[in-house]
Amino acid sequence: MSEEVTSSRAKNETWEWIKALGIAIALAFLIRTFLFAPFIVEGESMESTLHNNEKLVVNKAIYHLTQPKRGDIIVFHAEESRDYIKRVIAVAGDTVEVRNDQLLVNGKPVDEPYLAKNREEAAKLGVPLTNDFGPIQVGEGEIFVLGDNRLNSHDSRAIGPIKLDKVVGRAEFVFWPLSQFRLAR
Question: Where is the Peptidase S26 domain (predicted)?
C-alpha cells in the first residue's frame, strides 16, 4: 500500500470519528434540553418517597402532550436559581383543603398511601402530619403541590399554586444510587 492511500484512509477515519462525536454531542444536547434531564433531590421534603441526594430522571416532554395529573411527582422552577420536587395534589378548577389531617379535593377525602410512614412518625410526635388549611381554589393554568414529608416541606401551602409554565417535567425513576433504582411514584 502506498503512503498516500494510508494517509487518506487515516484522514477519512478521523473525519468519520469527528462526525460521529459531533452527532452524539448534538443528540445528547437535544435529549437533555427537550426530552429528559437528570435531577438531584435536595432536602427531605419528599421523604419517604424520595431521599436527599438521590438522582432521578425527569421527563421534560410529557407535559407538552398532556397536563400534570393528581399524584404526579413533578420538578418545577420555584425560585430564580432553584427547582423543587413535589407531588401534584390538585389541578385547575379543584378546591383543596386539609381538615383534621385529611386531604380533601373538591370536598372528597383523598387516599394517600405514600404517607403511611410519615403519618406514623407524626403520630409518635403527637402532631398532625398536615395542619389544617384552605379551602383554596386552584386557578386556570395552575396546580397545587405538596411534599410527602408535610412536616418539613416548603410547598403550595407557603408559595401558593404553581403556574404550569414553571413545570420542568415529571419525575420518572431514581437511577442513583444504583441499589435504589426504582420508579419515582
Answer: 15-176
Q: Are 70 and 89 in contact (CB under 8 A)?
A: yes
Residue type, 80: E
The pLDDT of 16-41, averaged and rounded, is: 72
Assigned CATH topology for domain 41-183: Umud Fragment, subunit A (2.10.109)
Reported in sequence order, the residue ranges of the chain that DSSP labels E, i.e. its strands, are 36-40, 55-59, 73-79, 82-91, 95-99, 102-105, 108-109, 133-137, 142-146, 162-163, 167-176, 182-183
> pTM of the prediction?
0.80
Contact in structure between 95 and 135 (CB atoms under 8 Å): yes
The answer to whether the CB of 74 falls within 8 A of the CB of 124 is no
Q: Catalytic residue at 48?
A: no
Question: Catalytic pick from 60, 86, 153, 156?
Answer: 86
Give the active site residue among 2, 8, 19, 45.
Answer: 45
Pairing of strands 167-176, 182-183: antiparallel
Q: Could you tell me the residue ranges of all domains in the chain?
A: 1-36, 41-183
Q: How many residues does the chain have?
A: 185
